[in-house]
TrEMBL record:
<dbReference type="InterPro" id="IPR017145">
    <property type="entry name" value="Aminobenzoyl-glu_utiliz_pB"/>
</dbReference>
<dbReference type="Pfam" id="PF07687">
    <property type="entry name" value="M20_dimer"/>
</dbReference>
<dbReference type="InterPro" id="IPR011650">
    <property type="entry name" value="Peptidase_M20_dimer"/>
</dbReference>
<dbReference type="GO" id="GO:0005737">
    <property type="term" value="C:cytoplasm"/>
</dbReference>
<dbReference type="GO" id="GO:0071713">
    <property type="term" value="F:para-aminobenzoyl-glutamate hydrolase activity"/>
</dbReference>
<dbReference type="InterPro" id="IPR036264">
    <property type="entry name" value="Bact_exopeptidase_dim_dom"/>
</dbReference>
<dbReference type="GO" id="GO:0016805">
    <property type="term" value="F:dipeptidase activity"/>
</dbReference>
<protein>
    <submittedName>
        <fullName>Amidohydrolase</fullName>
    </submittedName>
</protein>
<keyword id="KW-0732">Signal</keyword>
<dbReference type="InterPro" id="IPR052030">
    <property type="entry name" value="Peptidase_M20/M20A_hydrolases"/>
</dbReference>
<feature type="signal peptide">
    <location>
        <begin position="1"/>
        <end position="22"/>
    </location>
</feature>
<dbReference type="GO" id="GO:0046657">
    <property type="term" value="P:folic acid catabolic process"/>
</dbReference>
<feature type="domain" description="Peptidase M20 dimerisation">
    <location>
        <begin position="211"/>
        <end position="304"/>
    </location>
</feature>
<keyword id="KW-0378">Hydrolase</keyword>
<dbReference type="InterPro" id="IPR017439">
    <property type="entry name" value="Amidohydrolase"/>
</dbReference>
<keyword id="KW-0614">Plasmid</keyword>
Amino acid sequence: MKSRLRTALLSLSALASTPALAEPLADADRTAILAEVDRGAPAMARNALQIWSWAEVGFQETKSSGLLQKDLKAAGFKVTAGVAGMPTAFIASFKNGDGPVIGILAEYDALPGLAQAAEPERHVIDGIAGHACGHNLFGAASVAAAIATKNWMVAHGIKGELRVYGAPAEEGGSGKVFLVRSGLTKDVSAMLHWHAGDGYSAMQGHALANVSAKFRFHGLASHAAAAPERGRSALDGVEAMDNMVNMMREHVPQETRIHYVITDGGKAPNVVPDTAEVYYYVRHPDQQQVADIMERVKKAAEGAALGTGTTVEYDQIGGTFDLLPNDTLGHVMYDNLKQVPLPTYTAQEQAFIDKIAATLPKGGRKQAGGVAPYSSGEIMSASTDVGDVSYTTPTAGMSAGTWAPGTPPHSWQAVAASGNSVGTKGAEVAAKTLALTAVQLFQSPDTLAAAKKELDERRGPDFVYRSLLGDKAPSLDYRKAPVSKN
């Protein structure tokens, strides 16, 4: 935990001395860039809503990825698809001579089990997934920002390379980890990203490191009434493991989060299931701690198999670092976010927000007033594969108000707003902020140098990147339902 304390102290120090290296954009330049994004806003909204309607889960986002690639190619980017062993990943590059490399991350995967209409009441629709984290908005707005930035570079002769990283399977598949591990981000001067949310912020905080895995138990099938003694229940193995892990919760660091779902428990009560599967996440602010705790979970699985006469297989799915703040870049992004006009809503849109709020505990929360004050170093109780990016290249992010205030991520309310003009209006703010920040950084070599120095100081002189996934290949089928033998 010494590294965590050191990082927290650096965050406090950064707050005390705000970096002021980047020259602010001239008013005329800012106005021109905002207008450039405005021209592309209708296409951005169409893309976001189209991706929302497809709602493709991790590593299966063929149509969503293809749509974004098509627009980038049409805008003059060179697109390389299927990078880092992931068919739906891509890198789109526009190079205009030698200079800095600025990257923009794009996501587009949906979450299973949350198909929902774009309506302010619970209305389940056909489909296996829904955009409950707003990645349809994320991908579309990042591409819109990149196209606007590219057009600006051409018009003003700005030197350097602009890249869009199409990163699949953020929800558990650790897509960006494979991009980093393959060395595809190592020459990036600054990486920018954003996320859907219920307010506007450029807070640069920490996320939780995360290791996820599936445990597959194998037993012997038999008639559950006529010959139970001949069976060995794989489901018993899963339930015994879950009981032991639940008892373990008392004996792990208090910052730990452990959650699981049984993804296969058999098909009929009168058949002793010979296969069963449980899917686990383990989170903690420290990467080593999360790896150590998962080893204890593995021991629980082995003990459960021994006690139930079954066997168990361990299949690691994901593994992500915590998120490393970069205040040098964060302040640039914050200053630009404050310069972007926030949306005004039609009467119909405001009614949608109000109806959504009425479905939330205590009616949600009061409408956020503008951009939240800048902060750094807070530990957020969620995980992201942006963490690995942030440990290897200077990285900054922001959130935009795409949902009704008080809306939790991974909820039907988030799905509904992400498929509505309320969501696309918030995404437009993100696109403008990313474009302004990218343009400013292309013209601020001192800021990029300071951001790299800050990264080096935060991660320490002895840092060597080693993925929590080791040399494991992407789990391209991790969202597919397991096939039971029963």
